[in-house]
Each structure stands twice: as structure tokens, then as C-alpha cells.
Amino acid sequence: MSRELDLQALRLLVCIDSEGSLGAAGRKLGISQPAASAALRAFETRWQLTIAERSARGTALTADGQTVVAWAREVLHQIDTMRGGLTALSARRTQEGVDLGVAASLTIAEFVLPRWIGELRTTMPDVHLRLQVVNSDAVEDRVRSGDCSIGFIETMAVAGDVARRVVGSDRLVIVVHADHPWARLKTPLTRQQLMSVEFVVREEGSGTRATFERALGAPPRVAMVATSTTAMVGAALAGVGPAVVTPYAVRAGIETGELVEVRHGLDLERPLTAIWRRERPLEGPAAALLTIAHRAMANVSRHS
Q: Nearest Cα to 253, choosing from 178, 170, 172, 171?
């Protein structure tokens, strides 16, 4: 059996260490749990080591596993750095200006993508970006049509002809105006309470709307439909109703006390996912942007 290093297996081991379970590691890498389990078994067999011990509580690394993961982090960092450098060097030497089409859902485009693009432009100044800001469903359409090389959405639900990779996650919050009755509650809201009021929501097809409806288990009552996060926050500040938004958008309002984040029992965490056409592997600036996005979100997770 070949003893060449399997980089995908190394990424899986690092994710098991950071996520705490084999299933969560697989989801972060965009692979199924059976595929992740098979990859782990193959790695252990190839090197005749016991890397992880699985139980009902999750997947724990053995002492050997912890050593391998420490090495893997260094190797993967060097590989990602080299890949980004080679991509940038190749682009500078062979192309005079590269046109890169990027589609992104509103939350990503407004709050995290600008930093990724800034870093890309620092290393690859000849790249000219065409950014399309649309909801998650439309992002997939732009990528499938070939109009955009890469897209970023707030869900993992994509068609089979679209490749995907989770680059991070975001947890939505429910906020109300400081005068709203929910602002004074001391206990988490029940599903019955959540179903009893009208919300400010995004349009159909948005990742934010889909995440809320999935967590609630039913379509919410609607006071207002907004096509931008700014409009949602403005409506919540005006007392139109509770809004379900990314915490990036309401940090200032919560700090000033104008908005209050309310407690609840819903799972409003969602993946931030990069997508591209399966038959057209990412290369050049698109591949570099994916690496930047994944690294940036990993840094956010480590410092949150």
C-alpha cells in the first residue's frame, strides 16, 4: 500500500480535532459521514496507527492522533501558502488582467467578502472582479450558467452538478426594539411564542429566510419582507417586528441598547459555503479566493 500522504485525510484529521466529531468534520469539508469514516479508516490502515476513538459522545483523538494533527496543521499551512503564492505568481506571469466573476448572497457580500477580496487583490493586483450580489438561490444559478466562476451562499443545499466547500459558519440572532415586550423576558422564547407574532423576514430564496424557516419548522407569520439586511434592521428599529439577521448587522444597535437580542431554543447556525461547477475545477484567482475565505473564517472561529 502506498505511503504517500493523503492531503484530504490530513484536512479531515484537523477538522475532527476542531469540530469534535467525525460527522461535523465531514460536513465542514463537504463530504458525507460514511466517506469521512472510510477516509479515516484508510489512513489508520495505511500507517498502522489508531488515530481516533469513536463513541456516542463524538470522536476523540488518541495521543498518536494529536501528534499527527499537530504535524498536519503545519504541513497544510505550508501547502496553502505555497498554492496561493504559485497562483499569484502564475497569474502575474501569464495574464494581463484576469476577469473573475463572483456571486455572493447578501450577508456574505456585505459583511465578510470585502475583506477576502481585499486580500486577493493584495496578492493578485491584476484580478478584476465582477461581483453579483443576489440571494442564495440566484447565486447557484449564476454559477451553474458559467456567468460566475465561484459563488458564496449561506446553505449547503445545492444541486448535484455543483461542487461545494464549507468555509465557515454564521449564527443568526433574533432581535427586537428595546420597547418590544420580548426585550424584557427572562426565559427563552417558546416555539408557540415565536409562531404568535409577525416577523420582518428576507425574501423567498434567501439563505437567511431558509435557515429561519428550517429552525422554526414552519413558515413564520410575516409583517414585512425585505430584500436587504439594512432594511430588516431599520424595520426592527422602527418597531415593525422582530427580525432574524446576522449578528454582524446588529452589533452597533445592541451595543447602544436600541436593539435587544432575545433568547430562544432554535438552532439558527448556518454554513457559509463556496460553490462552483463540478466539471470545472477551480483554478487561478477563484481557487485563491477560496483559500483566503477558508483561512479567514478559520481565524474567526479560533478567536471567537
A: 178
CB 300 within 8 A of CB 185: no
Q: What is the pTM of this model?
A: 0.62
131 & 13 share domain? no
Rounded distance between C-alpha atoms, residue 38 and residue 6, angstroms: 13
List pLDDT tens digits, range 11-58. Answer: 999 999 888 888 888 888 888 888 888 989 988 888 899 998 887 777
Q: Which three cell numbers stand for residue 129?
A: 472582479
- Considering the domain boundaries, does residue 106 fall inside one? yes
Same domain? 108 vs 127: yes
Element at 201 (helix H, strand E): strand 198-202
Are the C-beta atoms of residues 181 and 239 closer than 8 Å to each other?
Answer: no
251 and 178 part of one domain: yes
Cα first-last separation, the chain: 41
Q: Give me the CATH number covering residue 238.
A: 3.40.190.10
Domain count, the chain: 3
- What would the pLDDT profile of 162-203 be if each residue is shown by its tens digit? 899 999 888 999 999 999 999 999 999 999 999 999 999 998
- End-of-domain residue from the set 77, 104, 124: 77
Q: Which domain holds residue 180?
A: 173-267
Residues 252 and 298 in one domain: no
Contact present, 235 and 226 (Cβ < 8 Å): yes
Question: Quick one: which of 88, 137, 133 has its CA closest to 114?
Answer: 133
Specify the DSSP element, H or E, that contains 175: strand 173-177
Closest CA to 40 of 23, 63, 28, 18: 23
**Total residue count of the chain as it appears in this document:** 304
